[in-house]
Design brief:
- This protein has 380 residues and is mainly beta.
- It has a single domain, classed as Copper amine oxidase, catalytic domain (Beta-galactosidase, Chain A, domain 5, Distorted Sandwich).
- It is 4% helix and 47% strand.
- Strands 4-5-6-7-8-19-16-15-13-14 form a ten-stranded antiparallel sheet, with no helix packed on it. Strands 1, 2, 3, 12, 17 and 18 form a six-stranded antiparallel sheet that branches.
- The longest helix is centred in the first third of the chain and has 5 residues.
- The chain is globular and about 70 Å long.
- The two termini are 41 Å apart.
- The structure holds copper (II) ion (CU).
């Protein structure tokens, strides 16, 4: 979880988000057989991602100059315990931040990107999930989830080729499945009152305004109610979702904003009437937006496995509340559809998914101009 991210902008503290967390995650399997057809682990609401966080080890989980946080946490019986070194914070180099070679002047300027990494790793049964929040010098915030561990498998008759699974070892197959996360993003872009727009690059029709048929625009569509704000990704249109504060302007008079830039992500493949489809309805959309309510924290409800379905986001949004001039909360479903490979056995190399939050007019220009050169000869 990230709590209260602010930027010190020339001495003025400007908030970006109030709180960001993983509200839920679910792992539905695509094999209808008796071993896997019923499986749909809710790894947050059923198992407890935070409760299952590992104690991290210097030189193994994190490298370099590390600060660890011990984490006090509640157990299931109302007691308390302390997880030692549950969260790791460190800085790391991330390649170039910006560069330009001035061909006329013969000068070069290069600055290195550094990011602050805040990470924890949870072991949920057979799988490991690493959660890495990155804070960059240009104002970008990223969540990267690293998936590894041991796949759930089934024994098969040697020589069989199962339809819903990959043979990963002699007599052993791993079924297709999904890992779908839902991030709860309570953005406060320069204040609590925000608005959300869907931004698509849209091709214009040929005509007098488009004589060479090259024209396209970044089209902004306001999402004014909960029903309007149930959306899917669209990489062909570079779709993103822009959260602006209509009451705060940059030096160009534009409302200050941050955009949610999704990655290449699926939605839930199980049907809407399946047991998991009824309980994990949040995963049928990549975006939901709600007005802030402190009691709305779990997008599949507080008890996803015991519910008959319909709890969480589908119930909260059924009254179609207004999102105009509201303290908005974005719910972003992302993840991977895992078609197992032989290389994923016996332990799966890390696979990645996640999203970015990127400033869009939040600053008056490139906020990373004041980054000093890492070495004297990186600046002319
Ligand atoms: Cu998997």
């Amino acid at each position: 979880m990230l709590n209260t991210v602010t930027y010190d902008d020339g001495g003025r503290s400007r908030r970006v988000l109030h709180r960001a967390s993983i509200g839920e995650m679910v792992v539905p399997y695509g094999d209808p057989g008796p071993l896997h057809g019923w499986k749909n682990a809710f790894d947050a609401g059923e198992w407890g991602l935070g409760r299952l966080a590992d104690s991290l080890t210097l030189g193994c989980d994190c490298l370099g100059a590390i600060h660890y946080f011990d984490v006090p946490m509640a157990d299931e019986r109302g007691g308390a315990r302390v997880l030692e070194r549950g969260i790791c914070v460190h800085e790391e180099d991330y390649g170039i931040l910006w560069k330009h070679v001035d061909m006329q002047a013969g000068t070069t300027e290069v600055r290195r990107s550094r990011r602050l990494v805040i990470s924890s790793i949870s072991t949920v049964g057979n799988y490991e999930y690493g959660f890495y929040w990155y804070l960059y010098l240009d104002g970008t915030i990223q969540l990267e989830v690293k998936l590894t561990g041991i796949m759930s498998t089934m024994g098969i008759v040697p020589g069989d080729q199962p339809r819903h699974a990959t043979v990963v070892a002699p007599g052993l197959a791993a079924p297709v499945h999904q890992h779908l996360f839902c991030a709860r993003l309570d953005l406060d872009v320069d204040g609590e009152t925000n608005e959300v727009y869907e931004v698509d690059t849209t091709v214009l029709a040929p005509g007098p305004d488009n004589p060479w048929t090259n024209a396209f625009v970044a089209q902004q569509t306001p999402l004014r109610s909960e029903r309007e704000a149930q959306r899917l990704v669209d990489p062909g249109r570079s779709r993103s979702w822009l959260v602006v504060n209509p009451h705060a302007r940059n030096r160009l008079g534009q409302p200050v904003g941050y955009r949610l830039r999704p990655g290449a992500t699926p939605t839930l493949l199980a049907g809407p009437d399946s047991p998991v489809g009824r309980r994990a309805t949040f995963a049928t959309r990549n975006l939901w937006v709600t007005p802030y309510d402190p009691d709305e924290r779990r997008p599949a409800g507080d008890h996803p496995n015991q519910s008959q379905g319909g709890d969480g986001l589908p119930r909260w949004t059924s009254t179609n509340r207004s999102l105009v001039d509201a303290d908005v909360v974005l719910w972003h479903t992302f993840g991977i559809t895992h078609v197992p490979r032989p290389e994923d056995w016996p332990v799966t190399p890390v696979e990645y998914c996640g999203f970015h939050l990127v400033p869009f007019g939040f600053f008056d220009g490139n906020p990373a101009l004041d980054v000093p050169p890492s070495e004297a000869h990186c600046t002319s």
